[in-house]
Every structure is written in structure tokens, then in C-alpha cells.
Amino acid sequence: MQIMAEIRPLSAELRRIAETELNEVEERIPADLQALRDWLAKQPHLKCRQDDQFLIAFLRGCKFSLEKAKSKLDHFYTIKTMMPELFANRQMDERNIALCRTGTFVSLPKPFGPGGPRIHLTNYSKFDSKVFKVFDLFKYQALLLERQVREDDNSIISGYIEILDLSSLSLSLLAQFDLSLIKKMGVFAEKAQPTRIKGIHFINCPKEAATVLNLAKSLMPAKLQNRFYVYKNLEKLYEVIPREFLPEEYGGSNGRIADIVVKMEQDLIGYNDYLKEDSQYGVNEQLRPGKRMNPDTLFGIEGSFRKLDID
Q1: Is there a single domain that holds both residue 51 and residue 185?
Q2: pTM recorded for the entire structure
Q3: Residue 123 φ then ψ, to 5°
Q4: In terms of Cα–Cα distance, which of 127, 120, 34, 48 is closest to 81?
């Protein structure tokens, strides 16, 4: 039997949600984890982390369907292997630390209710397109989301909410958006990520950004498209996400962005050992039983479809 101490204990609220909404049965967890490990041992193409905390994230993210968890684990490493530009050789290096310190992307300390989703905030007014590329931000966000797979029980059990403040989105920044990459990230979110996106909320959306937003939305899986929401201003957002769940800079009481950034930097620097280990995991398509996967079949992206042109 697996020792259950290797999995973080849940709060009462999260335990109730895990049991009632995710089909989690505490006494059955060791057997479910072992079933995943037995299956992984028979996959010559797949080298995967196998500690309890990592594997239970996939079981919870798939409502304890073993078959769905197997598929997500396979896709998790397959897509990461096929997107080295986003997932290979990741470290909290000087560039990522500098990006963290801008406060462009933060994970807010208080979730949306005691057992509720985690809340992320992206504010493009803090993003200097002369120093960073949009791709740098996507890579940094992917790193943080993966950390949450291991560290954030609210994200795994209740999902997460994205808030994007587009008030200072410049044309030069818009021109950097790679729609093929956005589509790939949508496939990753649907097929590989054990955390669930509960809503993507856009505020202060300029006319130019609306065009890109609609294009990006059209590339998302149908389930994600239905979770896009656009608000004219902050007051409209308050009607859906009360201000108490937003940071002080947005009229709320959910932390001050400067303080959140300091804590995030400390946490992420401490995550470097995990990231170093990560390079040993992935897939080898030459060893995959049955039909091999490739980027075209996995992402369905035409070769000529690459960048957005803005006049």
C-alpha cells in the first residue's frame, strides 16, 4: 500500500469538493495510483514523473477516470516534447526573474472562495515589449501553471480563473501574437493540463485587441470558447468577480501586487531543482506502441498558418 502522507492533506472545503465533484474516495487512492504506475511501466515510449503528488493531480483533473488520466499523462509529455520552444530547458533565470518582477502575471493569494478556483491576473500595462517578447510571457506562464499542478490544490480541484487587463495593449505587442502557438496552447489546455480553466475574463479591451481576441477564441476548443467573457470596465467585472477577490490595485483586498511578486519570485527560484529534473521526462515516438503522433495530427495546424498580420 502507498503511504498517504506523501499527498498533502486537503482543507475541509476542498475535501468535500474532491469527494462530491471529482469522485475521490480516500481509501481507494493507493490502488488508483498503483494502477497508473502499472500502466506507465508498460509504456516504452513514455518517461513520466511517478510521485504521489504529481500523479494524483491527473486523477483529480480527470475525476478519477483512469483511462482519461492515462490519456492526459501521455498528452502532457507528448505535447511538451513536441513544443521544446515552450517547455525545454526551463529555469528561473535572470530573464524570468525580471519578467516576474514586472508583475505582468500574478497568481493571487486568496482563491475565489475557500474551496474555489485560483485567480490569475495578467496586466499588459506592466509588460515592456521593448524588453520582452509575448513568447517570453507565454513560456513564463506555462512554467507557473505547471508549478500549480504540484503545489496548488485549489487549481487542481476547483480549477482557475484568468483575468486579462488589456488597457495598454499596443499594436506592436499585438503584432507579436503567434496564433499557431495560441492554438497549440489551447490543445495543451484541453488534452494535457490536469487543471481546468473555469473562465477567461477580459477587461478594458481596445478595438484593435478585440480582433485578435476573436481570432484567438476561434482557435480554442469549443469548451474553452464558451468560457471567454469580455467586460467594458472594472465595474462590470465586479458583478462577476467581487472586488474582494482582486488585488488592492484593482480596488480589492486580495494582496498587493508588489508583495505578491516578491513571494512568487522566492517560490519559483526554489522550484529550479524540479525544472532541472524535468529534462529527463518526455516521450520517444520511435518507441510508441501503435500509431505514432506528430505535430500536424496533434495540433491540426496548417504549415502556412503562423503569425498575425496587423495593418
Answers
A1: no
A2: 0.90
A3: -120, 105
A4: 48
Is 133 found in the same domain as 16? no
SS3 content of the chain, % helix, strand, coil (to 5): 55, 10, 35
Q: Is 136 helix (H, G, I), strand (E, B) or coil?
A: helix
d(C-alpha 138, C-alpha 205), whole Å: 19
Assess whether 46 and 176 both reside in one domain.
no
Containing domain of residue 221, as a range?
94-269
For the chain, what's the residue count?
311
Q: Which helix (H) or strand (E) holds 162?
A: strand 160-165
Among 123, 115, 113, 47, residue whose Cα is nearest residue 278: 47
- Written as nine digits, the cell of 308 is 498575425
The C-alpha cell at 206 is: 481596445
Output the tens digit of pLDDT for each of the chain's 311 residues.
444 448 999 999 999 999 999 999 999 999 999 999 999 999 999 999 999 999 999 999 999 999 999 999 999 999 999 999 899 888 889 999 999 999 999 999 999 998 999 999 999 888 888 899 989 999 999 999 999 998 999 999 999 999 999 887 777 777 788 888 888 988 999 999 999 899 999 998 877 777 777 877 887 878 888 888 998 889 999 999 999 999 999 999 999 999 999 999 999 999 999 998 998 999 999 999 989 999 888 887 544 344 444 33
C-alpha 31/C-alpha 59 separation (Å) is 12
3-state secondary structure of 311: coil
User: Do 135 and 170 share a domain, yes or no?
Assistant: yes
CA distance readout (Å), 180 to 121, 185, 192: 23, 9, 17
List of residues 6+ apart from 30 with CB closer than 8 A:
1, 2, 4
Gap between the Cα atoms of 147 and 245, Å rounded: 22
How many distinct structural domains can be found in the chain?
Answer: 2
